[in-house]
């Protein structure tokens, strides 16, 4: 196995799934919840998007839609193989959204303490996107 500092996000995603196979459904559900949240609030997010940020709202929503499509198309199949799960969520640019979802999930009561520690160790504890919606 590679040292953690030499792993890319695909390796890290697979490692997390292999360490916690019983949590894969919860991880997938956390990603799905984030997809739903962003899709339901898309107009508000796009209106308030910081234009000088690292990436655009269009790019972020491309990532959201990719994750949403993967879940819709492969929902139960993804849970059978950690590598396949990682290939879909942690390869290339898709890892940006999945990593953000994991870090957000680790901040919830639903995330088990051991999984929370693993997420923080493997992926860090700072969300990649700081989200605040203006109340209307």
TrEMBL record:
Superkingdom in the source lineage: Bacteria
Protein name (database record): Uncharacterized protein
